[in-house]
Design goal:
about 230 residues, Arc Repressor Mutant, subunit A, OB fold (Dihydrolipoamide Acetyltransferase, E2P), 6-stranded antiparallel sheet, 5-stranded antiparallel sheet
Amino acid sequence: MTKVTADVEYKISLDGKSYLLNQKKFNLLKYINSSNSIKEAANLTGVSYRTALNYIGKIESNLDIAVVNTTKGGKGGGGSTTLTEEGKMILKECKKINAIMELHREVNEIEATVLEIDKGKRIMKIQMNNTIITIPLHEEYKVGDRIIALISYDNIFIMLKPQKSSIRNVLKGKIIELKLEDEMIRVKIDVDGIPIFADVTVYASKDLELTIGKEIYIGFKAVSIATLKI
């Protein structure tokens, strides 16, 4: 089981160039956008003004763009700093990543071995214990590679019997735990000795008459699985 932490990095790509923003750089851009002040944004981020300028400089030099516009005030001051269109685009991409991570805060983490690769169909089969599932082809993998498959709790569907659908992976399992979590029922299922979690509504749990020890089927689409090479 994996939880997303606050200390994340955002990979931003622009015109063939990529740069990793950490949480502080993201916060700096966010606060510049809301305050129109690098000094205030630096304070809110918890870094010095010099460090804030250094962060901005690194983003701009690595992506070869300008991320801020600064206008000077008159004798009485009043200058301000705003994000450029490119700076706003970077902030938007970071927010999209945050939204995706918020939707998938917790995932099943399953070790598996690449069993078969079908380049024609653009898929591969991986094996976890005696269970085989299908995932999209990853060009960098080869047969025999050890990987970790990541499947979000809310991407797993619970069924009382196998059904014909677009879901490619359907596995039989047994419920070993039911727990109420944030107004959802977290179902722990034993699939071939591997614990897999799924979240369902209270209504769905009652409708399916889910109980500990009940045999069920779980399903998930191949595209809902992310992988990491061990």
